[in-house]
Amino acid sequence: MRAGALNDDASYRQAVIDNCQIIVAEGEMKWSDIHPARDTYSFEKADTIAAFARQNSLAVRGHTLAWYGGLPAWTDGIATRREAERELTRHIETVASRYRDVIPSWDVINEPLVDAPSGAQNLRDSIWTRKLGAEYLPIALRATAAADPKVRLVLNEYDIEFTGARFAAKRRALLELIRSLRDRDVPLHAVGLQAHLFADRTIDRDGLQAFLAEIAAMKLEVLVTELDVIDFELPGPIETRDAMVAKVAKDFLEAVCEVTPPTAIVTWGLSDRYTWVPIYFTRHDGMPNRPLPLDAQLHRKPLFDVIDDIRRRFA
Ligand code: G3I
Fold first, then answer.
1. How many Å lie between the centroid of ligand 1 and the Cα of residue 218?
2. In the chain, fewer beta carbons within 10 Å around the N or the C end?
3. Angle CA(219)–CA(204)–CA(114) in degrees, nearest 5?
4. What range does the domain containing 70 cover?
5. Is 33 touching ligand 1 by the criterion CB < 6 Å?
6. Could you tell me which of 153, 157, 200 has the C-alpha nearest to residue 175?
């Protein structure tokens, strides 16, 4: 969700209260928002979200502490390994301890792997991997656990669910990465499946379920953290489009729930009024994207019913 919309748009605010149990900041808890200069933290927008959650008895998830994206320009000036470890640890200590009583679950690690990795060593380039290599992962996870010993530590990744070599490679590399952390006793409680689904791709039911069985065998929880459906290449007619969007979400959620019912299903936004999708996936016909459970007028769409039905069936 977005703090700006919460403040400025009363009908959206009410829709969140009416339809959500868990909220997550789409950007307000990222480094760029919360830590704009090396010695400056800016908690105003994040606190707005935390206060809204408290007033309305909603849970809050934290997003995110160690990511290649959403970094403020000053982090480019981090020059040494020692400095990188100090800044990463300091940031996590400050943010995770501030929200200790508010946020029970953090996406500590976000999107660690490149697209089409050949193994767990193929981490995304960032200031963290440049200065710390793969050590940034245990550093971030341990720092979060130290700041908040009760918090659930989540590793969050996308492109896990589809048919195709690229997705199979991502699943393999992610398993390898998680195993390597477990082998070193690095604290980790859960895997977040972002689930930015492409409506024109096919869910690899067997591949996804085999992956989840391995996760479950390691006694890790699974969460769906950023569900939405990218519809930019779907046909124009809205009924057809909404049905295709709902179908891919149903295929995905059923495959997940049959193996490991997720401890949360979180969508990346609530209404088509506010979504990141057109930033990258604008439709060629100029029609607005419809990736979320409520339309831009806040009416329920078939995707809403799919999620509701899954929640009841697998509760
Ligand atoms: O709010 C400003 C607006 O005032 C300005 O006019 C406009 C011009 O570009 O930018 C607006 O900010 C944009 C913001 O989204 C709006 O919410 C930023 O440019 C844009 O970079 C930002 O993108 C966010 C993106 O992460 C990068 O941080 C998206 O909202 C957010 O949905 C997206 O979320 C990511 C998750 O963190 C990780 N997984 C993938 C997911 C989707 O890309």
1. 34
2. C
3. 75
4. 3-313
5. no
6. 157
